[in-house]
Amino acid sequence: MDEEQITAEQPVMVQLIYCGPTLPHKFGLRQYQVFIGGLPERIKEFAKECPAINSLLVPVGDFAETRISLGQKGSVEASQYLTVIEHLGKE
Fold first, then answer.
1. Which of 5, 36, 50, 69 could form a disulfide with 87 if both were Cys (CB 3.0 to 4.6 A apart)?
2. Is residue 12 over pLDDT 90?
3. Residue spans of alpha helices (H) in the chain
């Protein structure tokens, strides 16, 4: 078996980093928390209530660019960050 076959047969483990605000303990989601191979069910459930967190879960390779965008007023990321904070205030 050559190296290409081994690589092609292995599942890709996507690493996501959460760039939103830390959520209350019941959700167990901290700012800059990394997930490998998927999200826990509690996070998926919260994402149904507050879809804005989906745009704040980015591939680790996009982290630096996302951090820059979070600091830019009016960017999609900054807007979604504020949406999550507003949603938390309603709970």
1. 50
2. no
3. 3-9, 41-49, 63-70, 76-89
